Amino acid sequence: MKIKNTNIIWHHANVSRADREALHAHKSVILWFTGLSGSGKSTLAHAVEDYLHKMGVSTYVLDGDNVRQGLCSDLGFTDSDRTENIRRIGELAKLMTEAGIITLTAFISPFISDRDIARKLVPSGDFLEIYCSCPIETCEQRDVKGLYKKARAGQIPLFTGIGSPYQVPENPELIVNTHEQTLSESVEHVIKLLVQRGLIKIVD
Amino acid sequence: MKIKNTNIIWHHANVSRADREALHAHKSVILWFTGLSGSGKSTLAHAVEDYLHKMGVSTYVLDGDNVRQGLCSDLGFTDSDRTENIRRIGELAKLMTEAGIITLTAFISPFISDRDIARKLVPSGDFLEIYCSCPIETCEQRDVKGLYKKARAGQIPLFTGIGSPYQVPENPELIVNTHEQTLSESVEHVIKLLVQRGLIKIVD
Q: How many domains in chain B?
């Protein structure tokens, strides 16, 4: 028997998100990096975090590896498990944003509908989708984790780009061509986006 | 088909928890408040958060209401759903602690085994269990949310303390007798615990 969830009263926190943002001296936001395996999402997210941290910004990177081992360790890689994975990450990122943190997520997140679920969890402007664009040939050539090789050998049936589709973002807040520019150029583009949106301020 | 989760490599963040703690100028920790419905967990957690925030500490309160509406909205109140609920909250609190935040959780969390699962997710000393001790008669008299009334009327079959047991912590880091002291006395006890553990410093 599943008992329905009808006895819930929202508890208003005394300390608000705005209070936490004021303490941290910057706004919070979700930077949602998406792209193929090997497109540089995690590398870019961690490099942006490093840059922001050195500016005094409170940050955290959620990626497929650390979340998959914990919060989502019960989930596999079927379509429905991937959807639930992204939903939980969206909820997690939402709470971290409430906590006043710039939260960077680095997940393939291949389906438009799943990314839209995450986007719609938070107020407009709180979700910035950053598409790490890179041809699959380049990703496969890099093959840092050896996953493309395994996928080609049929050992990972639902691997994105081979056994399962990647749906390119239709209207992302930023496209980063990770194969055409250096890592620091890519970082610069993300930082510029944050400044343009008034989320952080560059102080001389 | 559920595909097993064997293709995961842990991604080491460039920015570490210690870096984030240094930025925030305090250590991070989980304060796990447990007790009956109406025992004052949420009130105390929010009051402690308010106190810490005014000290310049980065904080966040997870409670049954905000988590139940989001991350755990797919879960009900059966034993197995409660266990999964607490597991996810533990994982969430762990990530927030990694992010350098003092994370306060305010959940009935009635089962010793579930609280132990959450405790074991993090290094020793990162999980401080705070038992909000209050006789069920007092909780029922308060009945802020009208839940005891509903439970007595048989409308909430697995309500903790009536249709489902509450297992008192055997060895919590702190016991707060919420019915015998004022809210500010209770807050003071929690703050004292944090200072004793070297997690925060009181600066004159």
A: 1
